[in-house]
């Protein structure tokens, strides 16, 4: 099995040393997805799908810690990796990490760490351990908010009205300003803005 060196670094802690691991760069899994709500609409055979939010990407791979060359156990690196799924006393949450190999990297948090010890020395110290690690991508709220602000609506798009939604509510989510509901009403020739039917398809025009 072709193995390459990679590192896992705790970027929530300034100056944290990278943890060196081995992995197979041709055998890992990345999962991406999106969350949709099913909105029942009278007269339709299937519900309307309304996009709700994106989902964090997940990276899953098998890693190897090997101390046979130096005849040294891998205890310190194992403990450092275990710390990455423990609650940090200052952060009150496990830290954010970066998994890096070559020019590639993945920033996220470790959601699962499965250990399998496969080799020991005569004193019982671990010489080799196989790890199955699952990461989920992470981006701070501040960064996501700035990205959303830069990507404000610049073209007309479609919105399916959900139960309980009003035009001001839709305008707030589309433009960040509920008073811009008149723009949506005018685009869709709505004369009675207080009575928008659930399941109605609205055109959301670009912000002026």
Give a nutshell description of this structure:
With 208 residues, the chain is α+β, with helices and mostly antiparallel strands.
Can you walk me through this structure?
The chain has 208 residues and is α+β, with helices and mostly antiparallel strands. It is built from 4 helices and 8 strands. It has a 6-stranded antiparallel beta barrel. A two-stranded antiparallel ribbon has the order 7-8. Helix 3 packs across helix 4. The longest helix is centred in the C-terminal third of the chain and has 10 residues. The N and C termini lie far apart (57 Å).
- What overall geometry do the principal axes of the alpha carbons give? elongated
User: If helices are DSSP runs of H or I spanning 4 or more residues, what is the number of helices?
Assistant: 4
Sheet bearing the most strands, described? 6 strands, antiparallel, barrel
**Low-pLDDT regions:** none
Helicity level: 10-25%
Average pLDDT number = 83
- The class by helix and strand makeup works out as alpha+beta
Q: How much of the polypeptide forms β-strand, as a percent range?
A: 35-45%
